[in-house]
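Why does residue order matter? Because the sequence determines the fold. Keep that principle in mind as you read this record.
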Amino acid sequence: AYQRSDSPSARWNKSAIVQEAVAGKSFYGCDKVIVITNNTFTKSAVELATANGVVLWDRNILKEKLMYLNQ
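Structure:
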């Protein structure tokens, strides 16, 4: 399942994005959830993700992955 969130509140509230991902994981029966941003995550978003098994990719990880693909 794929869900894109670019609402104004989601841009600023990374915890809300993680909450949506956690809810979607159950609803869609996903085994793995990854939240990707071209920014950073708040401490509370990281804590929520860790507690719920959500993988977070911030701008640094995204940059690493893109650099790897472009080798």
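The chain is about 60% helix and 10% strand.
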